[in-house]
Amino acid sequence: MKSPEQTLWKAVLLTAVEDALQGVRSVEVSTARAVADARAKLWFTQPTENMADVCNLAGFDPVAVRDAMRKRIAELQPDVMPDRGVPADLPALTGTGAGTAAQDTPEIEFPNQEEAA
Q1: C-alpha distances in angstroms, 16 versus 92, 93, 99, 100?
Q2: Tens digits of residue pLDDT in 49-87
Q3: How far apart are CA 33 and CA 69, in angstroms?
Q4: Cα R_g (the chain), whole angstroms
């Protein structure tokens, strides 16, 4: 039997799938949308603890979800490198807005809400 929490996490996962496959519709500016779309794809194609947590809470195997999404993303956009999820034609000036500090720090951690309180 599904719990309300699992139903919520399934909705979160579905929104992420839609963002990765159909584009992030909530972003208005085309340059920002290109970055948001690339990040949505990257979230599925790169193994992260965050994606694994969402999948587990939704009741899905994270590896199976990642593998299926890599295939779907590659089918939709042949110019996307399946192992990275980065569009080959993303404009160089778009950037991520994160600067080099974030690029040089592969594992950025944030405190839990309990720790922050």
Answers
A1: 25, 25, 24, 26
A2: 999 999 999 999 999 999 999 999 888 865 544 445 555
A3: 20
A4: 15
